[in-house]
Amino acid sequence: MNSPAFPPSQPAGTPLPDDMAMLRAAAELTRDISTARPALYWPDMLGSASVGYGALAGAILLTGWQAAACAVLAVLALYRALLFIHELTHIHRDALPGFRFAWNSLVGIPLLTPSFMYEGVHTLHHARTRYGTADDPEYLPLALMTPLSLPGFILIALALPFALLFRFAVLVPLGVVIAPLRRLIWARASALSINPAFRRRPPEGLFARMVFWQELGGAAWALALLALSASYGWRPLLTGLCVVSAVALFNQLRTLVAHLWQNEGEQMTVTAQYLDSVNVPPPGIWAELWAPVGLRYHATHHLLPSLPYHALPEAHRRLSQRFGEGSTYAGATYPGLWMLIGRIARSTMRRREARTIAWTPGEA
Question: Which residue ranges run through the membrane (predicted)?
Answer without folding.
Answer: 55-81, 139-160, 166-185, 206-228, 234-253
